[in-house]
Amino acid sequence: MDATDDRLSGRVTGLEYSAIRQMFERAGTLEARGRDLAHLEIGEPDFGTPEHIVEAAFEAARAGATDYTSTAGIRELREAIADRPGKSEDFDPGAEIAVTTGGMEALYAALQAVVDPGEEVVVPTPTWPNYLTQIRLAGGKPVEVPLPAAEGFDLAPDRVIEAIGDETAAVVFSSPSNPTGRVFAPADVRAVLEAAAVHECFVVADEVYDSLVYGDRPAGIPGYTDHEEYLLTVNSCSKRYAMTGWRLGWLAGPADVIEATSKIRSVVTASPSSVSQHAALAALTGPQDRAAEMAVAFEQRRDYVVDRLADVPAVSAPPPEGAMYAFVDVSALPGTSEAIAGRLLEEYGVVTAPGGGFGAAGEGYLRVSFANSLDRIEVGLDRFEQMVRDEL
Ligand code: PLP
Q1: pTM of the predicted structure, to 2 decimals
Q2: 273 lines ligand 1 (CB under 6 A)
Q3: DSSP E strand stretches across the chain
Q4: Which superfamily does CATH assign the domain made up of 3-48+289-391 to?
Q5: Does any ligand 1 atom lie closer than 6 A to the CB of residue 211?
Q6: pLDDT at residue 210 tops 50
Q7: Which of 85, 277, 332, 352 is most buried (most C-beta within 10 Å)?
């Protein structure tokens, strides 16, 4: 087939797969040739979805919950989201919550609803690359604001606020942060929200890792603001309940924006999967012990990664306060982060994500995911340590 750029829209020709996805694909090619690789690149919990959630989905399907639902999602689920364990804000389930096909659709719909072509969207970096791509898909211009490496990439409200101007439609970030594992301080988040509201721009706050917090800082992003009319929060069942494949998330925010996103989503997906919505209902309203056990397992892995990295010469990482990633400074090694990740993959059999893929501020780093089992993390870190010792 003759596939020239002309055949495709300008919207898509500039798009690239994320650095994480590219490493995953390269790894797949090596594995197809029989290579044993330690996967420390993806943010996919290695646990199965808890049994009672799977069972609820079976029951719902058998009982006939197999039709389109309201675009905003079934009412019981929106109520369960409004009352969910560990929630950080009150939202009206009737008008201020939309159930979506994963956090990704929530983010997509939010950006499509509030960003006009040519408008700027401020993104503190290092950042999850999906934000930058989704902003471009909405016709917006990402404005990267590098966070200070010397402070472990903590939110620097002054820098972020300085970047907000008349052309800014939104500020987007996650806390706990992917890729740095940083949990932003409430006062810093509040400062950004307040400045954004003064400029009448939105804050899209991504809380998908809010169940994985290891330090003293509180997890939720909202709850710190008097400006709910400019706050949109994204969340999902993916990480908390090991439900990535069920594609079930939500967007919460002011009623006019939720209504606008429903108009968009009504012509794209019509509604989230009905069966997944019943699974999510069981997840949010049922026993929380499996979710708690998984969070404990993540904390053990996080502690292990911190201990092991402390023994590797010439590298360092801010201790992750949340999420499932260590962001490791490998600038003592030769070459770009992409080259380093490439050697680590090809020569030592460890898959990581190069920091340069998380915005310019991530250059010189590797993102190491601890979503894999302790055994595989150990194999991966043994090999990583070997590479560092070989190359120094
Ligand atoms: N936000 C962040 C920061 C993520 O890392 C991810 C997935 O890795 C998501 C959102 C989306 O998750 P999902 O669409 O599975 O809910």
Answers
A1: 0.96
A2: no
A3: 38-39, 97-100, 120-125, 141-146, 168-174, 202-206, 231-236, 249-252, 325-329, 350-351, 353-354, 365-369
A4: Aspartate Aminotransferase, domain 1 (3.90.1150.10)
A5: no
A6: yes
A7: 352
Pairing of strands 97-100, 120-125: unpaired
pLDDT tens per residue across span 183-203: 999 889 999 999 999 999 999
Q: For the chain, what percent of residues have pLDDT higher than 90?
A: 89
Residue 13 pLDDT more than 90?
A: no
Domain boundaries, the chain: 3-48+289-391, 51-285
Token pair 């960003």 is at which residue? 115
Is residue 168 within 6 Å of ligand 1 at its C-beta? Answer: no
**DSSP states along 206-263:** E-TTTT-B-SSS-S-SSSS-S-GGGEEEEEESTTTTT-GGG--EEEE--HHHHHHHHH
Question: Token pair for residue 56?
Answer: 């609820």
Is residue 44 a contact partner of residue 323, using CB atoms and an 8 Å limit?
no
Tell me yes or no: is domain 51-285 CATH 3.40.640.10. Answer: yes
Query: How confident is residue 282, by pLDDT bands cut at 50, 70 and 90?
Result: very high
pLDDT tens for 82-104 read 999 777 778 999 999 999 999 99
Structure tokens at 6: 């002309």
Atom number of ligand 1 nearest to Cα 106: 14
- Residue of 18, 128, 132, 208 to mutate, ligand 1, most atoms within 8 A of C-beta: 208
Q: Which amino acid is located at 290 in the chain?
A: R
Indicate which residue's Cα is closest to atom 12 of ligand 1: 103
**Among 99, 104, 251, 358, residue to substitute to test ligand 1 (most atoms within 8 Å of Cβ):** 104
Ligand 1 centre to CA of 388 (Å) is 30
User: And the tokens for 235?
Assistant: 């969340």
